[in-house]
Design goal:
The longest helix is centred in the N-terminal third of the chain and has 52 residues. The chain is rod-shaped. Strand 4 and strand 5 form a beta hairpin. Helix content is 51%, strand content 21%.
Length: 592
Amino acid sequence: MNKSLFSKLLLSYILIILVALFAVGITLSHLFSAYYYSSKEAELVRKGKEIAQMVVQYHDSGGVLPGPVEQWLESLDRFLDARLLVINKEGFIIGTTVRSRFPHGMRLDPSEIGMVLNGDVVSKQGFHHRFGQAMISVGIPIIVDNQVIGGLLLNAPVSGLSSTVTSVRQLIIYAALAAVAFASIVGYGLSKSISRPLREMSRVTLEMAKGNFKQKVTVNSQDEVGQLARNFNDLTVTLDKTINALAKEKGKMENILDNMAEGVVAVDQQNNLILLNPRAEETFGVNVSRVLGKPIHTLGDGQELSNLLDRVLKSGSKGSEVMEFALEHGKKYILAHASSLKSEKETPFGAVAVLQDITEIRQLDQLRRDFVANVSHELRTPLTSIRAFVEALLDSMIDDTATQQRYLNVIHDETLRLDRLIHDLLDLALIESGKANWDLEMVDLREVVQQVVVKLKHLMDQKNLTLNIDLAGEELQVLANVDRMQQVLINLISNSIQFTSNNGEISIKVQKRDNQVWVEVNDNGSGIPEEDLPYIWERFHRVDKSRARHKGGTGLGLSIVKLIVEAHGGKVGADSKLGQGSTFYFTLPVPE
């Protein structure tokens, strides 16, 4: 309470009033006492002069005043409340009202009466050692024919005056106490009127610190404090709007950062992490709550990024830098654009890097290069064979008709192979471009399988393969293009025929699972190594030994199968064990 503004104001008002009243009381007391003493002194002088005139008539230079005069002086003593002494010019007492202290014939000390006998009116206040109390003493010279023949001394005790002054002082004290009480009431109200809005504003500021800007201060006055309260209310409204606007902007920035496809990493001047968006967390495989505020090298694989941001911090505001680096031992590639963070005064206080995952771009670029290389290789091999055999025939180096025929058959086979390769390439490009014409209709996959088996039966007979077909008892209708479905099945079944040894076995199974139709083609051929399974759907991928070029494939069949099935809303897959055979399957959704 002693530290509150209310108590300080109230105590200050009371203290000021007390000091003011004390000063006024002391001044008034002094003035009153001085006034009373001066009045008494003036009265004694005036009365003393009148008595001196009367004493002159009975003055005898060497004797004592007559008895009647003595009585008269005693009467004046009681009337004036003053002790009277009459002295001659030699300083001897010739008349007195205090015989016990000042008998007749007693000579007074010249220091007490010297100025009076010189013709001066003397007055003084103070303790009188002869009377043993405070007295007002007045000395009046008795002058006859311009000569001092004696003097009149009046000594009035001040005890009566002191009691009067004391009464006045008590009155002043009572008035001061009443004034203090009244001033305390007024000061209390005034202090409350000032401290209440301030205390209310203090409460509101605490609520504002908690985020509640809907509070308002009640305004009950039109003075400066009331104006301050109104201004404070306006401030809360403005702050509420400003903070809401900032919160919206912050929310926008957070949403943008959270939903960016690129990662964002920011550091301060000490290269400590101050920001990571979710994409950056995913890129480095960290949790932002665990690395925030720590050096950037705690990201593990982020040493290159740390070096980049360190260079940006050292270069200051000289622009941005770009760097490409690998993560996870080359499994992921990142392109980083880094620049400095600047304040309004263009003073750098950190650096930020935008991370773009270019792994897919790198993979696509590598696939493009591999595709070009594979196409070039696939085209060059038959062309080389054709050129060699044609040159041999043109040079007339072969006279044997059978050999010539064999050469021509090789040229024909290579030409057909080139035709298949080009056809598959065009088909693949057409499907990927999205310009393929898909005439979709309701198709029973069981019938499509039976049609394809009839077309490929002669190939299976050549290798004496056993075919097992397991078709569902009910119709398996799907929305598909008949020709493309036949192309998928021909590619899968032909693939199994090519890589199944003589007297082998091929199984085809068609069934419905949940809301999908499953088609499986299984063989007991050479199988596929486990490490090659994820890549068999890529273009020109060949498995050594079990996928030799002399088998006649173009290396694009499975890629075409994958594109056709996915274009119909389905999925493809394969399971295989080396030396035990392979199972290729695809699914298509059943229309509702």
